[in-house]
Amino acid sequence: MTGLLDLDRVETPAAVVDRARMEANARRVADYCAQHGLRWRPHIKTHKSRRIARLQLERGARGLTVATPHEAEVMSAVTADLLLAYPPVGPARLERVLGLSESVDLKVALDSTEVLAPLAAASRAAGRSIGILVEVDVGLRRVGVQGVDAAVRLAEAVAASEGVRYRGILFYAGHIRGTGPAEDAAIAQLSADVAALCEGLASAGLVPEIVSGGTTPTLWRSHEIEGLTEVRAGTCIFNDRDALTVGAAREEDL
């Protein structure tokens, strides 16, 4: 730990950050993404700090990922380029999302017409147009539509709905961790699946402008995923023992 003389004087609980390492981590990720023609849109759930979000943007991040309408409100003071990773459900959340400044380029991820319909209706009533990313399940079995056909159907529903705009697709491959033959095969399968999704959508006249993915465990293999345009890795700003264990960080990155 650099720049801290006496840890015994720090009152706990406290989050103690090595700023030099944090900045180096941010630069390393941004440089990797730039090298491979990817955008870095970090998820801010790791820090939930406008100050650190600004640092990430200054070091090369392009936009931020948030989880809640409140986080969108807070981070809209940092950047106008926001991705809301979970759809706002219910009048109160919809009101907050649509209360964001019209200068905010907001994208919302969703995986069903049940949440699409009220979002589109509220956006239309407010005279707004919200960008939509269709969330696709690529193996984690947690969220997302399954398969190319389901993705195309939902994308078509988005494209046909007033008040929203189809922008692309989003996925979370949280089931791929570590290094070795099994992970190599999983990355290859993920790349093939994403390529098939993009091809299926393109055949339906729905070429995805944004293909959003990426996790900290798979961060440094993002360039192997065909069609990927942006990476949402967030823990990489600090890294931890888990990142070290799965081969996503070095001792000097922690």
List the defining traits of the structure above.
254 residues, alpha/beta, TIM Barrel, eight-stranded parallel beta sheet, 8 helices
Question: How would you describe what is shown here?
Answer:
By secondary structure, this protein is an alpha/beta fold. It has one domain: TIM Barrel (Alpha-Beta Barrel), CATH 3.20.20. 37% of the residues lie in helices and 13% in strands. It contains eight helices and eight strands. The chain has helices at 19-35, 50-58, 69-75, 91-98, 113-125, 148-159, 181-203, 241-245, and strands at residues 39-40, 64-66, 81-84, 105-110, 130-135, 164-170, 210-213, 230-231. An eight-stranded parallel sheet has the order 1-8-7-6-5-4-3-2. Strand 4, helix 5 (113-125) and strand 5 form a beta-alpha-beta unit. The longest helix is centred in the C-terminal third of the chain and has 23 residues, at 181-203. The radius of gyration is 19 Å and the shape is globular. It starts with 18 loop residues before the first helix and ends in a 9-residue tail after the last helix. The mean pLDDT is 95.
Condensed summary:
This protein has 254 residues and is an alpha/beta fold. The chain has one domain (17-246): Alanine racemase (TIM Barrel, Alpha-Beta Barrel).
Furnish the topology, listing elements before pairings.
Blueprint: H1 19-35, E1 39-40, H2 50-58, E2 64-66, H3 69-75, E3 81-84, H4 91-98, E4 105-110, H5 113-125, E5 130-135, H6 148-159, E6 164-170, H7 181-203, E7 210-213, E8 230-231, H8 241-245
Parallel strand pairs: 1-8, 2-3, 3-4, 4-5, 5-6, 6-7, 7-8
Helix pairs in contact: 3-4, 6-7
